[in-house]
Design goal:
The chain is mainly α. It has a domain of about 120 residues: Hypothetical protein af1432, CATH 1.10.3210.10. The protein has a two-stranded antiparallel ribbon with strand order 1-2. β1 and β2 form a beta hairpin.
Amino acid sequence: MISAFQPVPYPIDPRWKVPTREECLNYLKLYNLPRHIIDHSILVARVALEICTLALQKGMHVHTRAVVASALLHDVGKFYCVEHGGCHNQLGASLVMELTGNPAIAQGGMHHVYWPGAVDIHKFFLPLAILYSDKRVMHDRIVSLETRYSDIYRRYGINERMQGLIRQSWQQTLHIQEQFNQNLEADLNARTFDSRRVVQGERGLPERSSTD
């Protein structure tokens, strides 16, 4: 479902700061992110980097450094929200804007949970790459979409409303994956992003009643 709010694309402006990998990791430490969230963010960046590489091979215009920076910083607000409450993607996007002044990088963090607009990887490559990459990393492991969403469903599908939202997100992420697959001529869900073996995953979401 497309929301009434429609995001706008942010072509990279040379006046905007694109932090290096080292700077991004320092930002994560600045906001006291625990090691497991940093490890998660590094793996999300690995997935995003490979997607960028595939896109560049197909002649797509991609700002790899900005994508990697956004991937590393997408959860910068998470630990604060775990401790004190709040929406970690909104807080994270605000922190990224404060740190970098770069709305393109901030948009990747802002919308890594759910994309509120039309799925168009040519127009919105960076945020859609971040959303997809995040959905391929479960804690500190790169997994299939099926495995990731099965875990989300078991942990957060506590009632019919949450189950519906998770299924909606699942369908959207499958649509994003399909667009990447078609344009990159690749089967992303079968990639391990470490060139060693094919990811093995579950098939679809688990069954769960609203009373579980």
